[in-house]
Specification:
This protein has helices at 12-18, 21-28, and strands at residues 47-51, 57-60, 64-65, 73-74, 83-88, 95-100, 106-111, 121-124, 129-133. 11% of the residues lie in helices and 30% in strands. The model has no long low-confidence stretch (mean pLDDT 93). It is mainly beta and 135 residues long. One of its GO terms (molecular function) is peptide-methionine (R)-S-oxide reductase activity.
Length: 135
């Protein structure tokens, strides 16, 4: 039986009260942090990467790799229903935005230039993530 994901709905004011200004800018206003500056960019600990807004599990540390892009990169989400992909044609380029399937927060983008086995690179803002270290 497939798991039914419970959606998280909050007003923008509720999100403002829960998130730091940087998290709000990235997660709710679809901003991007500067490359090579994110707190989780060089994180190599074992654990789970969660949505920075609603704490839904998004990526396992085993799928994180060094892409050289300046942002945490993963080759697959924790499950097919953890994220949603949305076509993004802003700034004169075609990209695919990645959002949290639970709360709709902006995470980053996915590109078709990642490693095996998926060939995908989920390029995710550190400000969009929380990290839960494995015990």
């Amino acid at each position: 039986m497939a798991e039914t994901r419970t959606r998280v709905h909050k007003t923008e004011q509720e999100w403002r009260e829960l998130l730091t200004p940087e998290q709000f800018r990235v997660l709710r206003e679809k901003g991007t942090e500067r490359a090579f500056t994110g707190a989780l960019y060089e994180n190599h600990a074992d654990g789970t990467y969660l949505c920075g807004a609603c704490k839904a599990p998004l990526f396992k540390s085993e799928t994180k790799y060094e892409s050289g892009s300046g942002w945490p990169s993963f080759y697959q989400p924790i499950s097919a229903d953890a994220i949603e992909a949305i076509e993004d044609n802003k700034y004169g380029m075609r990209r695919v935005e990645v959002v949290c399937a639970t709360c709709g927060s902006h995470l980053g983008h996915v590109f078709p230039d990642g490693p095996r086995p998926t060939g995908e690179r989920y390029c995710i803002n550190s400000a969009s993530l929380a990290f839960e270290k494995k015990n």
